[in-house]
Design a protein that fits this description.
The chain is α/β, with parallel strands linked by helices. It contains 8 helices and 9 strands. It has a domain of 160 residues.
């Protein structure tokens, strides 16, 4: 048992969003107090976390405003850098073994290739290869918010993906493993797009990822996407 970690000491990451760099209020305050170091602040990562404290409070206090998750944002120049920065802000290390979904903003996907954005996640053995990847129109972090008490946004996104048997407008799930395969074979592919407004989300359209650059080069609306899925049989 020398290598065991108590569940009470873990922060379980279940969702991750990548956006264009934009410091949060807390980051700005910390920076003014001497947290500055040389960086360009290219990307903001938002981690959705379930902690034992949050889970226990939901069980004991089922108040209408009680959230069952915590979103923590970190701004930096690389995924690895931002993950390490989190260890300077919390005594509970981020555990990504239960990560369910990664959402990338449209603006970021057009500026950087998926190979760059997801390289750390593909190499890190904490991330399961079955983790889903989505594109968002607007800030990706907004898709990890919800107004309904007791519900968890990351689980909601995964649940919507599972409704594919009801409509052709939901694409087959694209996992980290599938994306890595597409990247290595230099194949173009589609990623499901998700919209978010005031804590509500909806799957609508798809992002076109170019096989050579691995960047988002276009967008298919609802009508175009339905046509493609009927022709290709969603495969």
């Amino acid at each position: 048992c020398w290598s065991s970690h108590e569940i009470e000491e873990q922060s379980l990451g279940i969702g991750l969003a990548f956006d264009k760099g934009k410091k949060s209020f807390i980051e700005k305050e910390l920076n003014e107090q001497g947290d500055g170091y040389l960086r360009k602040d290219l990307i903001t990562s938002t981690y959705q976390i379930i902690t034992p404290q949050v889970a226990s409070s939901i069980t004991k206090q089922s108040g209408p405003q009680q959230k069952s998750y915590v979103n923590v944002s970190e701004t930096g120049d690389s995924n690895l850098q931002m993950t390490r920065e989190l260890s300077l802000r919390s005594e509970q290390p981020l555990d990504a073994h239960h990560m369910k979904v990664i959402v990338i903003s449209e603006k970021l996907a057009k500026s950087y290739g998926l190979e760059q954005l997801l390289d750390f996640n593909l190499r890190d053995n904490d991330f399961r290869p079955s983790c889903l990847v989505l594109i968002s129109k607007g800030r990706a972090s907004k898709t990890l918010e919800i107004k309904t008490a007791g519900e968890i946004p990351a689980f909601r996104l995964v649940g919507i993906v599972e409704n594919a048997y009801r409509t052709t407008r939901i694409l087959p799930p694209m996992s980290l493993m599938k994306i890595e395969s597409k990247i290595h074979s230099k194949s173009s592919f589609l990623l499901q797009n998700v919209l978010s407004v005031n804590g509500e989300v909806k799957f609508a359209g798809a992002a076109v990822i170019d096989g050579k650059t691995h960047k988002m080069t276009g967008f298919l609306n609802e009508e175009e996407l339905e046509g493609v899925t009927w022709i290709t049989g969603k495969g």
